[in-house]
Design brief:
two-stranded antiparallel ribbon; 6% strand; 95 residues; Membrane-bound Lytic Murein Transglycosylase D, Chain A
Length: 95
């Protein structure tokens, strides 16, 4: 009878080691959580305090031009109708 070689256990052991290593690599490579988004509504300092409405102006164009959110302009100007800006009216862009 041929004696059993201890090397016959090498393939199953190598397979188990490979599987454990694969699990460790996959579990450690999970993406880290994203940092929370920071949104700011602060108005840049170089924006003028007021703007005089010209003919053909619309609130979104003024907002884009001065990089001030429309909501901020509306909040600073109570009673302002964003759909009908009166020509010549001064609107606040920042406090």
């Amino acid at each position: 009878m041929v004696s059993a070689s201890p090397l016959r256990f090498l393939a199953p052991i190598a397979l188990v080691v490979f599987f454990v290593a694969a699990v460790i690599v996959v579990s450690s490579s999970e993406p880290s959580p994203k940092p929370p988004e920071v949104t700011t509504t602060s108005t840049p300092a170089n924006v003028p305090r007021t703007y005089r409405v010209r003919e053909g102006d619309i609130l979104t164009a003024i907002s884009n031009r001065f990089r001030v959110p429309v909501n901020d302009i509306v909040a600073l100007n109570p009673g302002l109708d964003p759909q009908a800006l009166p020509v010549g009216r001064r609107i606040k862009l920042r406090p």
